[in-house]
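Can't paste images in this forum, so I'm doing it all in text. The chain is below; anyone willing to post the predicted structure tokens underneath?
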Amino acid sequence: MASGEIETNRMKVLEKVEGFEERRNTLLFGSRKFPVGGSNVPAETVVFFPGDVQNFEKILKHHEANQKWKEWTFESTICTLQQRFPHAQIVMVTPFRRVDETFSCYDNFMEMDILGSPVSIECHHAWEHLRLLLQNAWKSIGEEQAPNSMVEAGTIGDILTESSLTLIGFSKGCTVLNQLMYELEDACSNKAVLAFIRRIEALYWLDGGHVGTIPTYVTDDNVLREISKLKATFYVHVTPYQVKDEGRPHIGEEHLQFISKLMQYGADIKSTLHFRDESRSLKKHFEVIKLF
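Text version of the structure:
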């Protein structure tokens, strides 16, 4: 369950929400527009995993090295996503830890090094952790939005599994999507997790990248064959900042393998290269959040 709830800028911050085996992450729930005459239970839930540098406004605007990127706070990103998905419930899963309030580390989803680059693709129960995070977060705040019948029946935590799911990773946040893909086949043996996975309609990789040795994009054929069985649409949005990095040429190569192999295996995948003819730019890297 969540150990604390804070209201900020029309969104809820749920601190230390419990997931798998007492792992905890802080989640942000955006406000939501309700369709006229429609149900107040969301038809769609959008889950976003932020990247390095991104942080709460109160931290980012005072950070000596990163304050120039204050346009990309957690709060502003939630607002951008709400505009992109006006009737969806936006949920941001923040990193378990941040080094120097800069480097995002998703240790609760995979094994990572000190600066948050993945060091293993072995099973870390990432799907079960995500499912329980969302379920327990909704139990904490959902009663005010749910029908009385669900509250009385004690099924409030099932709301998020009744809505469709869209998963989005930005930059370092894409490591979580990758880990979920590596664990997909094993996770489907769990009936509760399988039901959760079947709700996924779309996955977005937004300019993924990290400095570790684990591939930036999934390239293993066995894993990709399994991924292609998902009844979901895959979206990949990149910029030259990542895929044209001369110091990390493998990112561009892995990106192309990921796309071409998924197409080969029959997946519904759409890829976009933004700022194609422009030089590498961290500013343009962040702007993909608004462009996808």
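The chain has a mean pLDDT of 91. The longest strand covers residues 11-18.
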